[in-house]
Design goal:
The protein has 6 helices and 2 strands, in the order H-H-H-H-E-H-E-H. The protein is mainly α. The protein has one domain (2-214).
Length: 215
């Protein structure tokens, strides 16, 4: 039980770290590439992170429900904010704008990294305890990891942690396809397909803009 608790705490620490990285990346975006006031969104995200932190130790049903609501709201807000920034960056890359070309490329890179973090949180949330702390993986796994297929002592009782989902999200963004774990449901296939499409669109637009700048 203590080992599970320590592992869970380590996962939450990793997730909090990448969430703070996400907020840092949002701070680097030009205000014209953010939908609405930038700092209002960041304050809201910090409040939700704080809400998740204070409800994590609570074991009763109200604490779990609040944690789940905070978690899903946080991930959804970051997803929508990053999607809006992606649309604004794509529009500027295609049609040209007051934002310098190099700034647009840096913004696209920030969106690309944020996209990796966002989908790692979604995968973690739907397949594992996630930020909500609700265990789901034992009943209906959404991903088939290599360790789940090996019948050896080293992988006996193995369960994916947040880092596994972060790696899954990174490889899916880089290769535009699953390279580590395979999606088992239509929902996870749709999520991975959407992530791959956003990543491909970002890379194509940035490449086109970079060629234009260098040319």
């Amino acid at each position: 039980m203590l080992m599970v608790s320590l592992a869970r705490k380590r996962e939450l620490t990793q997730a909090q770290a990448v969430l703070l990285i996400t907020i840092g990346l949002q701070l680097t975006l030009d205000k014209s590439l953010v939908l609405g006031p930038k700092y209002v969104l960041i304050v809201l995200e910090l409040l939700l992170i704080f809400g998740i932190g204070i409800t994590t130790p609570l074991k009763h049903s109200l604490g779990a429900r609040l944690r789940r609501d905070f978690s899903l709201a946080l991930i959804a807000i970051i997803t929508l904010a990053n999607g809006a920034s992606m649309v604004l960056v794509a529009n500027d890359l295609i049609h040209g704008a007051s934002v310098a070309g190099r700034e647009l490329i840096f913004a696209a890179f920030a969106i690309f990294v944020t996209n990796i973090i966002i989908f790692s949180l979604w995968y973690w949330e739907i397949d594992s305890p996630g930020l909500t702390g609700v265990y789901k993986h034992d009943t209906k796994p959404k991903f088939l990891f290599p360790q789940m297929q090996y019948k050896v002592e080293e992988t006996k009782g193995w369960e994916p942690a947040y880092f596994d989902y972060l790696y899954l999200s990174t490889t899916n963004s880089a290769a535009f396809s699953p390279t580590d774990a395979l999606p088992l449901t239509h929902d996870t296939k749709a999520l991975m397909g959407l992530q791959a499409f956003i990543s491909l669109l970002t890379v194509v637009l940035v490449t086109a803009r970079a060629v234009n700048i260098l040319g």
